[in-house]
Amino acid sequence: MNNDEGGNDFNKNNVVPKKKAILSQKQRSELASLTSLKSTAENTNASLGPRMASGSFGAIITALAVTPLEVVKVRQQAAISNTSNSVVVPNGA
After folding, report:
1. Cβ count within 10 A of residue 10
2. Would you say 9 and 16 are in contact if contact means Cβ atoms under 8 Å apart?
3. Per-block average pLDDT, block size 10, for the chain (93 residues)?
4. What distance in Å separates the CA atoms of residue 37 and residue 31, rounded to the nearest whole number?
5. Nearest-angstrom CA–CA distance, 78 and 72
6. Which residues have C-beta within 8 Å of that of residue 1, sequence separation ≥ 6?
7. Strand ranges (DSSP E) for 1-93?
8. N or C: which end of the chain has fewer CB within 10 A?
């Protein structure tokens, strides 16, 4: 292969040479903050009880917030379905 095929830079051993990553100062600081958040989340050793409580609390809040919206959505769909499927029967039939 040569350099013109598919934009790949292969040498004789078909190994792609490593390119040095150049990050801006902003990108480096964002990467550092993401890395610190990940390590903080991994180091949190909550026991089973608090994890179950937080999961239950989240599920309750989600159910209370989403269920009324689902009811409205289904009623709107039913209203649209009923009006679009109505059959007009001529007077003579």
Report:
1. 14
2. yes
3. 50 61 77 68 74 94 94 90 66 62
4. 10
5. 10
6. 8, 10, 14
7. none
8. C
* Number of C-beta neighbours around residue 51 at 10 A: 11
Long-range contacts of 43-46 (CB under 8 A, 24+ apart): none
Q: Quick one: pLDDT at residue 19?
A: 62
Structure tokens at 9: 């830079």
Contacts of 10 (CB under 8 A, 6+ apart): 1, 3, 16
CB contact set of 54 (below 8 Å; sequence gap of 6+): 46
Residues 54 and 47 sit within 8 Å (Cβ to Cβ): no
Q: Provide the whole-model pTM.
A: 0.39
pLDDT at 47: 87
Residue found under tokens 């499927």: 85
| 31: Cβ contacts below 8 Å, ≥ 6 apart | 23
